[in-house]
Amino acid sequence: MTSSGFFLRSGETWRSPWDDYRSLRDDSPVHFVPADGDNSDFWVLSRFADVFAAVRDTTRFSSAEGLTPNADAMSMFEAGQQPIVMMDPPDHTAMRRLVARQMTPRRVGRIEQAVREFVDDRLDHVADAGGQSIDIVDALFKPLPSFVVAHYLGVPPRDRGRFDAWTNAIVSANAAGAIETAMDAALELFAYATELMEAKKVEPGEDLVTDLVEVGDDVVSPGWVVGFVFTMVTGGNDTMTGMLGGSAELLTDHRDERQRLLNDRSLIKNAVEEFLRLTSPVQNLARTTTTDVELHGQQIKAGEKVLLLYGSANRDEREFGASSGDLDVGRDIDKTVSLGYGAHHCLGASAARLQGCVALSRLLERFPAFEVDSAGGRFAPGGFVRRYESLPFTV
Q1: Is 287 helix (H, G, I), strand (E, B) or coil?
Q2: Which pTM does this prediction carry?
Q3: DSSP category for residue 47
């Protein structure tokens, strides 16, 4: 813990933030962080009840000024181009309706076979390694979410590899010296999204971009469609990579819980909820207060940034009990903030759960004794998503 009591992590500092989070929950649940070179003053909420309440309260805790403590968070977006995650109701609600039908559990279920085939193909390459250590992030955990996001956007296979580079640059924006690179990547992504929209007007498909294009410019501006593509790429790729990498680490470290899954495959769906809780791929996002807020004796003024520390909230003993930091694949979980909640519940939640269930169940079925070397793994830069950039894997 730094002298300020909190810092935005990146890279290797993501390895084990849990003790620091506990100290915040116990000693400073509404914690003030003074401005630095990149960020304005902001407050940190670390207890589950406080974070959960703020996530649902879009009236007092607004997303419209960006989701980071950086005062220039919205500078890369032109008017009308901000992503749906940076909108508040009622505008957010109206836009969400336009895309939600593609992301229902029933519609997502239609791609399960394609996801299973993709996972098995990637695991065939793992098997071909003949027991040698491979990077499971490169082999499966990174390509899988990219495949799913590209499917929903209707991106042609020839272009899908380009998404990883853009995502890596954008989510690393808070790493030292990465802002310019992230801006360049965002501009390239915006340009490509515009090309994709034009292509869908000529050759429509069964995808989200086609749905939005067919609504018409009078309802959805081209700039907003571009912003939506940005949201899908940055929100759907690295987060699932983080969840899968963290889950493999947990299964390596908790052999008894792994054995429970091997003995009873019906537990996998519940286990994915537990993995989402413990890994919390999106560790934190910010809101901006629209009115003065008093919490735990602290006064947060209107217009101030508030960082919601999801990774801490999901391990809060006050909500999940004394074993909150332990893996329990049979845990009875009522709610978490891993995928948001309320108005900002993650549009891709069903797709995320599907990927988790298929990838982890196939890993266990094909390589029941697999191990990952977390000490040899490398964490990705960026202050909001905790994920392994590489993770050695043996069978």
Answers
A1: strand
A2: 0.91
A3: S
pLDDT at 188: 85
First to last CA, the chain: 36
Q: Which residues of the chain have pLDDT under 50?
A: 1-4, 174-177
Place of tokens 């990465």: 178
Instruction: Give the CB-side neighbour count of residue 360, counting CA atoms within 13 A.
Output: 34
Q: Are 184 and 387 in contact (CB under 8 A)?
A: no
Question: Residue 274 corresponds to which tokens in the numbers above?
Answer: 């537990």
- For residue 176, the model assigns a pLDDT of 44
Rounded Cα–Cα distance for residues 27 and 351 (Å): 37
Asked whether 85 and 67 are in contact (CB, 8 A), the reply is: yes
Q: Give dist(CA 49, CA 172) in Å, integer.
A: 29
In 13-25, which positions are buried (b, 16+ CB within 10 angstroms) versus exposed (e)?
Answer: ebeebeebbbbbb
Instruction: Report how far apart, in Å, the C-alpha atoms of 129 and of each of 42, 97, 141, 366 are.
Output: 48, 45, 17, 14
Beta bridge partners of 294: 299
